[in-house]
Amino acid sequence: xxxxxxxxxxxxxxxxxxxxxxxxxxxxxxxxxxxxxxxxxxxxxxxxxxxxxxxxxxxxxxxxxxxxxxxxxxxxxxxxxxxxxxxxxxxxxxxxxxxxxxxxxxxxxxxxxxxxxxxxxxxxxxxxxxxxxxxxxxxxxxxxxxxxxxxxxxxxxxxxxxxxxxxxxxxxxxxxxxxxxxxxxxxxxxxxxxxxxxxxxxxxxxxxxxxxxxxxxxxxxxxxxxxxxxxxxxxxxxxxxxxxxxxxxxxxxxxxxxxxxxxxxxxxxxxxxxxxxxxxxxxxxxxxxxxxxxxxxxxxxxxxxxxxxxxxxxxxxxxxxxxxxxxxxxxxxxxxxxxxxxxxxxxxxxxxxxxxxxxxxxxxxxxxxxxxxxxxxxxxxxxxxxxxxxxxxxxxxxxxxxxxxxx
Length: 407
Prior knowledge:
Blueprint: H1 9-29, H2 31-42, H3 46-74, H4 76-93, H5 100-114, H6 118-128, H7 134-164, H8 167-188, H9 194-198, H10 210-215, H11 219-248, H12 253-281, H13 289-301, H14 307-334, H15 343-372, H16 376-393, H17 401-406
């Protein structure tokens, strides 16, 4: 049976990518290279840096289930549009905070608004793209956030802060960017008609909690959630502490941001290469667990190198994470029992668990670093968690088209 392709899907992918790039990417990516500047002004410890960086993940953790379920009930366009309004306010609010507590609260509120946006971008992919394009579309979406993170990391300390007069005006700029995204989204985004979705086997729009009750019974979804806790939570913690580690080793904040940007650029390339090959061959797991092993080795060793060896290790991390993360979400979209109308609830659960990791792990890393006065134990912890994710991957069912044909 030839898979039907909806003409407007490419337009929607552009809108999804713009939001992922500039809101979830750039507006977050400017923070790590500015943390040394923020820490100097506010006299922060490593533990406090970890709490500030982790607080927006806590906001996403607490509200992702609600955000995903709301999109299942009320539609992707309306939920994302409403959340963009709050995102604009909370992005700018970060620049007005006088100290540690206020900045932590502002980051938390921004994360809470993202909980109604980021999981539903993947839901949108599931609504507009068929099985033969899912891996590639998710890879492109992952590239977009990577591009935004690169822009933020490469320009936060080296361009925006010097140009605008400090980290506070840079945060005000992020609020203005969110306003522009809201206008573009309202002007161009469409809701996928329910009658079109119904032709693919969905009988009706589920109640707000109906989809959540259905997806929590799926064992493999919980395994993916734990994998996201380990890999995504760990990689976000890695992003928060890498510039701080490099600056304390004598590197400039601008160069540290560039190196993190290099990592994200490399990751973005493999966001498409790996999933595209996976689509072509019709399998998922062989493109996940070997790359989790690569990222584990790289993160465990990153604190021991500088110069060219450091760049090599960062590229190793990028390859592993770049291939694995979009395929995590692709596997979820292909799981039996989820389907187009329940993707929001499933992704809400996914982002709840990975943001638990993204909140806890930076704080744990900060405590470990403050206690040991060394960076490598914290990064080693992240490497071990990548091995845990690899082991969990071996336990889930294959969802690729080849496995479905055999079945």
